[in-house]
Description:
By secondary structure, the chain is an alpha/beta fold. The protein has helices at 6-11, 28-36, 50-63, 89-106, 122-132, 146-154, 166-174, 206-213, 219-227, 250-258, 267-271, 273-281, 305-325; strands at residues 41-44, 68-73, 136-140, 158-163, 179-182, 189-190, 233-236, 244-247.
Amino acid sequence: MSLRTPLCELLGIQYPIVQSGMGSAAGPELAAEVSRAGGLGIVAGLGVTADELSRRIRHVRSVTDRPFGVNQWLHTELRPPVDPARVPAATTRAVQTQLNVFRERLGIPTTHAPAPGVPDLIDEGFAVILEERVPVWSIGLGNPDAAMVRRCHERGIKVMAMVATVEDARAVEANGVDIIVAQGGEAGGHRSTWLKKPREEANVATLTLVPQVVDAASELWKKRLLESDGGETTLTEAYTGLWARSLRNRFTEDYADSGAPVLPTLMQQRAAQDVFAAAAQQHDPEYTALYAGQSTGLVHDLPGAAEVVERIAREAEAVLVSLRAMGGAR
Length: 330
Ligand SMILES: Cc1cc2nc3c(=O)[nH]c(=O)nc-3n(C[C@H](O)[C@H](O)[C@H](O)COP(=O)(O)O)c2cc1C
């Protein structure tokens, strides 16, 4: 009886524990620590230039020779990013009007200017992943085309895609990905779909989804996570323009109540950058994106990444032992 699974064998890791990209919350140190502890650490690649991505990959390799992955978002609105000129002026006005409410509360200048465009970084990041022959290409919010998967396979790179619906699981499988991660509705962060779906459509609980498909952050964030239970999370599109699960705060609630629309993928985030920067400077959790899953209710202390991997493995082994004792495990 052990935690060795076909997934471990496929990836060459000790435990089937995969850490997510954590784009906004953690650097390559976390990925390296998780891989060193026997899980699969994932380097965040979202919004990162090719040079920075290479630096992160080199950092992980300088710490460990265990397998790791690099995560990219492949959302259709990022390939290429939506041209800000295509956003109707009325949408920009409505978004900025609501953001100005927050700017006034935080004491920073108001604006009605269009949001800056999102940089086009996916192709250059993918080229680095191929060149560096990273062990695993991890995809959030996207379906890689078959040619991209083939180019990875030619270099011995495994492809792992996260999906939130059964339909999307079938689609990524058809394009040849090696590993499908089922993201349940309780998961923290963005709904992993490549087209923005209605709020409830990519919100299936893990226990329902999985059978069908067969952490280091700022002090503020850690403190709020420890204080909160899972019921305090919400699905909001106010941070990036896409549905994401985060802790409820004034930003998520007042934005929703205002009825303001949102800008396209990540452009919304760029429009509100000054609000987030001011909130960070003022240590104000009410206007900070605190992405978190419903599992925050289960978090009561702050162990290091290696200890999290060890604890998960230890607890899973204990469950296997008790199942065997009950005669329930083969
Ligand atoms: C703070 C945070 C950052 C995340 N960053 C990424 C990311 O960069 N790329 C990605 O594919 N998923 C990202 N995710 C989503 C996770 O892959 C996944 O859905 C979630 O963490 C599942 O675990 P949970 O239920 O414990 O939150 C992020 C989630 C959180 C909470």
